[in-house]
């Protein structure tokens, strides 16, 4: 699976269920520093989610290698959820690597790698989410989720540009 299968413009995510990984990508009209901050700060609560799916309502984190983070939210059905993990690599504004333990995924530990590259419109964000080997249903579900997440993030910056 290569980055060239990910389209420019609209968020796109693809899964390799055999390998247990997801690649997702989006172009965002903001500089890498701003996008990095939106991924690794309380700002995440301003954009991650929508009323018809789920919404992150709280984010806490110690953004340093070995530091932990936790996001909490509520689904459209009113059911609470959380995702927690630790930061494995931090290279602002180019790369952020963290573990991912979602309470709806039986506490399975996966790894999310965010790569941010300057682009003609601002930032090309590529997400690699790995650790789904043998769990194809979870891999597919997270793939759909990443398309939503990257769309919300891009919309967050489109709104900010209009303000």
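^ Assign residues to that structure.
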């Amino acid at each position: 699976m290569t980055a060239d299968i990910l389209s420019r413009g609209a968020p796109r995510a693809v899964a390799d269920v055999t390998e247990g990984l997801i690649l997702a990508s989006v172009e965002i009209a903001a500089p890498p520093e701003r996008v990095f901050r939106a991924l690794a700060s309380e700002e995440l609560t301003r954009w991650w989610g929508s009323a018809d799916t789920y919404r992150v309502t709280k984010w806490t984190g110690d953004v340093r290698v070995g530091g932990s983070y936790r996001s909490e939210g509520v689904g459209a059905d009113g059911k609470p959820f959380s995702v927690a993990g630790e930061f494995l690599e931090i290279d602002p504004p180019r790369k952020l690597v963290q573990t991912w333990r979602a309470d709806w995924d039986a506490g399975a530990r996966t790894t999310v790698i965010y790569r941010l590259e300057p682009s003609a419109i601002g930032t090309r964000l590529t997400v690699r989410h790995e650790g789904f080997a043998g769990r194809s249903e979870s891999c597919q579900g997270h793939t759909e989720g990443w398309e939503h997440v990257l769309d919300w993030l891009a919309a967050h910056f489109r709104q900010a540009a209009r303000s």
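Confidence is low (pLDDT under 50) at residues 1-7.
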